[in-house]
Amino acid sequence: QVQLVESGGGSVQAGGSLRLSCAASAYSRSMAWFRQAPGKEREGVAGIDSGGDTSYADSVKGRFTISRDNAKNTLYLQMNSLKPEDTAMYYCAASGWVRSGWLLRTNEFAYWGQGTQVTVTS
């Protein structure tokens, strides 16, 4: 069992930046960020595996950067040039292993955090 705790969410104006963090209770080979806006399905935002390979949703490429500090069992998501459509609850997820091409699939991840709200105002 892996516990995940997200932090760093908040309210920011369009064009601004936020950095999300996810503290894990143990090491996980694959980790990812997902988000869910009201009335929409949860979607993959960015994922990273143990080798450092990353995947990004097309909507965030060039604006968001996922990274991890394995010594601290912590996952990060640097979000720049935020847009109102980025407004959502952001969730951290972890799993033993996910093939790199599947890092944005919700059903590949066994452990989930409670989420942190990100609100981008225009």
What does this structure look like?
The relative contact order is 0.33. The protein is 0% helix and 48% strand. The model has no long low-confidence stretch (mean pLDDT 96). Strands 2, 4, 5, 6, 9, 10 and 11 form a 7-stranded mixed sheet that branches. It has a 4-stranded antiparallel sheet with strand order 1-3-8-7, with no helix packed on it.
Which terms would index this structure?
122 residues; mainly beta; seven-stranded mixed beta sheet; four-stranded antiparallel beta sheet
Describe the secondary-structure layout:
Layout lengths: L3 E4 L2 E4 L4 E7 L5 E7 L6 E6 L5 E3 L7 E6 L4 E6 L8 E8 L15 E2 L3 E6 L1
Parallel strand pairs: 2-11
Antiparallel strand pairs: 1-3, 3-8, 4-5, 4-9, 5-6, 7-8, 9-10, 9-11
